[in-house]
Each structure stands twice: as C-alpha cells, then as structure tokens.
Amino acid sequence: MKQSNKIKLILAGTGHFSSQIFESLILNKNFEVIALISQPNKAYDRNNNLIKTEVAKLAEKYHIKLFQPAKIKEIYDDLSKLDFDFFMTAAFGQFIPNSILNLAKKASINVHGSLLEKYRGAAPIQHALLNNEKETGISLIYMIDKMDAGDIINVAKIKIEENDTALEIFDKLAKLAIDNLPTWLINIYNNNIFPRKQDESLATLAPKIQNEEAQLFLTDSCDKALAKIKAFNDQPGAFILINGKRLKIFRATKSKISTPLTLNFANGKLYLIEYQFEGKKKVKHEI
C-alpha cells in the first residue's frame, strides 16, 4: 500500500490520546504531517509556568508547524494557504466550522472513542464505563456541522476488561487507532471505502463530565460506585467525603483483598486499591 506521493495531513488534538495517535502518523512513511493544531496551553506547574499540551510538545519534538487558537476559525487564513489531503481530529475539544472542514482536498475526518451511534460527545469513554458496557472501540467518521453525526467510514472494537479504568481504555483505543488508521487513510485516499449513514434513532450522548458527577455516596450501590471510580480514574477522580475530608479513589474492587481501607456501600463493600486523602500522597496497594 505504498504511495508514490505522501498523503498530507493536518492533525488537530490536544492531550495524550491525540499525541500517541499523531506520533504514529508522523513516523509513518506514507504520510506527511503538514501542521498540528492544539488547544492553547492552559495548565500551570508548581512554579507557575505554563505547561505545554501533549500535542504542542509533539510539534516541538518533530519541528512541525503548530497552531494553538482559542477558536479554530482564527486560523482559517493560515490553513487556507496550506496544501493537505486530510484534516483529522482526535479529542481536540473545539467545534470545527464548515469553512475549515471544506479546506481538505480529500476529506475532514474524526477519530471518535466510541462505537457510534452510541456516545456522541466529549466523554464517550467515561460514559461507556459508567454504563458498564462490555465493549467499546473507535469510529472513523466524516465531520459535518453536527457533533459526531457524520457518516461512519470504519469501526474497530475492543472488549472492556473487568479491571479496566478510563486510563486503560484511552491507551487501548489509542493503540487501536495506531493499528488501523494507516490502512483506513490509504483506503479513503484511494476511494476504497463503504461508509454508512448513522441511524439518528440510535444516537446517545456523552456530554463533558462535571466535577460534581464524580462524587460517591455510601447510599450508592457497589456497582454504581465502582463504575464511577473506573470512569473517572483519569479525571476528575471519583471522591467521597469522609468526616468532611475528601478521599479520592482511583481503583477499587468488590473482590476481598488485603487492604487497610474499605468502604461499605448500600449493598456491599468496596476494597480500595489506589486512593488519596486530601493533602496526602497517593496510596497504592499491590494485589
């Protein structure tokens, strides 16, 4: 599947999930990444220095043109001067207007972390875990002016294992994208695809997670509490208030293990594996 001319890409994403996928394409001889687009740097370290996003670090590492607009429409003129076949997003975090989508010579596409039509929106991985789904995956779709509603080009699936948290799922889906995207992109480039329209009646939403949604209560069922712990492991972290102090819980199990900390929920006990009391260091027990 070698190309006589490299397929030219502009890639838009922000965090670790995006950067893993994008680095694989940067290193693939079939592609030339013309530019990277990231959200602006917003986080600060302990010394009050701005922390670069993972995609911004990637641009620096490989000396690739980087854009970090507050709103992507601000760079329309810059992008219109570039020659590229595909505009592709992966967990970018901004709405893309049609004026930008129409610039790609071949297609504007999105790598979405769910099995569409399920879980359109900003937090598909978290919602799959909250709902105790048994499988998830990635969907490669055409981008249109409605969120995650474009025709589905390809899908790849994985099982959700019993101990998977959002962290594991993000990494598994990134690997799934790395394994499949080169072939998928070449097939689109060569018009060797059979996209299908989404069934709007099957669409479900996965909106951005609000911090208060991560709170646990002892009146919750074990399954509900455990699903929240798995879903919010990456961020913002599931938490419960104990004597007015916040206890963050990153991993837990219903299976009896040797741990000094357990919590009694409405219908059973959770054994804490990884947790952090407010103002203290994170504790992790081997199991």
TrEMBL record:
Pfam families registered for this protein in UniProt: Formyl_trans_C (PF02911), Formyl_trans_N (PF00551)
Signal peptide span: none
Record's GO cellular component terms: cytosol
UniProt-listed Enzyme Commission number(s): 2.1.2.9
SUPFAM superfamilies registered for this protein in UniProt: FMT C-terminal domain-like, Formyltransferase
Enzyme class: transferase
Keywords: Plasmid, Protein biosynthesis, Transferase
Protein's UniProt keywords contain Transferase: yes
Transmembrane segments: none
Cross-referenced Gene3D superfamilies: 3.40.50.12230
Residue ranges annotated for the Formyl transferase C-terminal domain, each copy included: 208-257
MF GO annotations: methionyl-tRNA formyltransferase activity
Annotated Formyl transferase N-terminal domain residues: 6-182
CDD domains membership: FMT_core_Met-tRNA-FMT_N
InterPro entries: Formyl_trans_C, Formyl_transf_N, Formyl_transf_N_sf, Formyl_transferase-like_C_sf, GART_AS, Met-tRNA-FMT_N
Annotated family: Belongs to the Fmt family.
Listed name of the protein: methionyl-tRNA formyltransferase
Species name: Metamycoplasma salivarium
